[in-house]
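ARCHIVE CARD
CATEGORY: sequence design from structure
SOURCE FIELD: tokenized fold
FIELD CONTENT:
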């Protein structure tokens, strides 16, 4: 399919869309907007694949969200059986989430790390990119630093084969540089339409490493702040990226579409 815009991270299976999901997807088709539906556990990963099999403009990403893990969690081996589906374009969302921890929980951190490494192994085994969810505890870069230590190690031992994207980038310059050094891409949400906090990173990412996302149903961009978000709003994110970078919208738009194909080769 020939896309005009691409939202690399959304959750259209959320109940928020129960009333009008099919309409929403049809409108996206009309405007040539594609999206990757991101699973957060085995069940939602399976649903993401079912949706992708029904619609040409949808693709699936399968994994376990680090923020949902607890001290009894293990890697869900059933994910392995889903990864060969041709509509699965990435592994995730996976990574480390220390934001929701009330105390420094060493056991939970080590469980998150172990399960993250299973996702990395699966991505390498299936030659798929990672969709990273990394969220540090307030005012720190702790989860980013831990995740990058793991990623850099696997990047090296895989002979630089590991690839992926850091979703909802909220790191600092040092973190950004480390992602770029291992060849990863970085994506931004509608958050950039209502805060200037990420402008310096939007400018610092090379044009061949940047991608657009909505993280729907969360963080709707201006002027839809109060409503439910939708992949249909991704053009607003692309326009804002162009504005912040001082580049023509069509240049940024074309670059992002090329990046989507380069980073997610199963998207066509
Ligand atoms: Zn997500």
């Amino acid at each position: 399919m020939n896309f005009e815009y691409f939202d690399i991270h959304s959750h259209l299976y959320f109940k928020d869309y129960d009333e009008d999901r099919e309409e929403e997807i049809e409108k996206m088709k009309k405007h040539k907007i594609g999206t990757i539906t991101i699973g957060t556990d085995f069940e939602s990963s399976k649903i993401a694949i079912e949706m992708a099999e029904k619609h040409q403009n949808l693709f699936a990403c399968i994994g376990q969200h680090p923020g949902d893990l607890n001290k009894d969690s293990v890697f869900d081996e059933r994910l392995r059986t889903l990864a060969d589906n041709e509509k699965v374009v990435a592994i995730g969302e996976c990574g480390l989430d220390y934001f929701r921890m009330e105390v420094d929980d060493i056991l939970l951190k080590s469980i998150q790390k172990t399960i993250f490494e299973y996702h990395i192994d699966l991505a390498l085994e299936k030659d798929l990119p990672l969709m990273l969810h990394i969220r540090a505890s307030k005012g720190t870069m702790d989860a980013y630093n831990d995740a990058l230590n793991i990623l850099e190690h696997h990047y090296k031992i895989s002979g630089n084969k590991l690839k992926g994207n850091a979703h909802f980038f909220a790191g600092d310059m040092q973190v950004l540089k480390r992602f770029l050094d291992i060849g990863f891409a970085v994506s931004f949400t509608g958050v950039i339409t209502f805060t200037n906090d990420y402008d310096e990173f939007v400018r610092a990412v090379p044009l061949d490493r940047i991608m657009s996302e909505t993280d729907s149903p969360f963080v709707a961009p201006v002027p839809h702040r109060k409503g439910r978000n939708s992949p249909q709003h991704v053009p607003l994110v692309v326009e804002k990226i162009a504005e912040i970078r001082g580049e023509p919208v069509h240049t940024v738009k074309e670059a992002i579409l090329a990046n989507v194909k380069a980073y997610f080769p199963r998207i066509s």
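CARD ANNOTATION: Strands lie at 5-10, 33-38, 58-62, 88-97, 130-135, 164-167, 185-188, 210-212. The first strand starts at residue 5 and ends at 10.
SHELF: design records, drawer C
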